[in-house]
Design a protein that fits this description.
Layout: E1 2-3, E2 16-22, E3 28-34, E4 43-47, E5 50-54, E6 63-67, E7 72-75, H1 80-94, H2 102-121
Antiparallel strand pairs: 1-2, 2-3, 4-5, 5-6, 6-7
């Protein structure tokens, strides 16, 4: 579902989208993204034996989180784009595959296109 509270401001870009993914094994992901509200930068995953989450999850100034057992999650602060370019260069120089395959990127695009199709039709879209 997509919402636009300001159709003029968000004429050429999505304001807010919420969607749900259902996986064959029974896992459900509830997702949202927005340009309307600044600072939403987190995720939480719930599992059979606990949970974990990052907040902030996608920042350039460090990634931090917590687990249900009380332990803190701290990711090393790196320049994500430089690390990606370094990996691509290394793959070219050594004739090795990238850490992230083109198939994984294509899968992501198929999911995004299904979200947009569902917004357009108002119906769920099956990918598998």
């Amino acid at each position: 579902m997509e919402t636009k509270t300001d159709p003029v401001k968000f004429k050429e870009v999505d304001e807010s989208i919420v969607w749900q993914l259902k996986f064959p094994g029974g896992i459900i992901a509830y997702c949202s993204t927005t340009y309307l509200v600044n600072g939403i930068n987190r995720y939480t995953a719930y599992a059979e034996n606990g949970w974990f989450g990052l907040d902030p999850a996608y920042s350039y100034g460090g990634i931090r989180g917590r687990r249900s057992d009380g332990k803190e999650i701290i990711a090393e602060e790196i320049d994500q784009f430089a690390a990606e370019m370094d990996n691509f260069a290394h793959c070219i120089l050594t004739n090795m595959p990238s850490k992230v395959s083109g198939e994984e990127g294509l899968r992501d695009i198929r999911i995004l296109m299904a979200v947009y199709e569902s917004i357009k039709t108002g119906q769920p879209v099956k990918l598998a």
